[in-house]
Amino acid sequence: xxxxxxxxxxxxxxxxxxxxxxxxxxxxxxxxxxxxxxxxxxxxxxxxxxxxxxxxxxxxxxxxxxxxxxxxxxxxxxxxxxxxxxxxxxxxxxxxxxxxxxxxxxxxxxxxxxxxxxxxxxxxxxxxxxxxxxxxxxxxxxxxxxxxxxxxxxxxxxxxxxxxxxxxxxxxxxxxxxxxxxx
Length: 183
Hints:
Layout: E1 5-6, H1 27-40, E2 45-47, E3 57-61, E4 76-98, E5 101-119, E6 125-131, H2 132-145, H3 156-171, E7 180-181
Parallel strand pairs: 1-7
Antiparallel strand pairs: 2-3, 3-4, 4-5, 5-6
């Protein structure tokens, strides 16, 4: 089932999310619905706060990006109760966007490599290192479960330039080709 994506301004997007247990109600269905919602909106990642849930769950599919970058080795994973262990390497800017903040993009500086500990959808524990665009997508989605948005990291001049767009998104004065829930 395709779920509405919560738009910028929704309080859940600024909440630090809580851990879940294996017996979280309807978890498999929720994950399936999140995949369907993400693909419908043409995203490469989706975090639970973006569908109104303040839980530590996000999913990422960078396999889709392999078509654009043949050197990229993508992956498709579910991250539950993720905890960032380390972020290291050079900082590099990259223009990011977000399904909760449509039609707004901006350069965000992130480290090139990360180590993250998480549970998969079967509650098996993993600790993995990622780099490049894979690390960036994970960092972006991880920020969501920490109550942070990519626009929080933009330079002040860029923030001023997008202020009106953000206000319009809050009011629902925007057209997108996927379901959204506005303030």
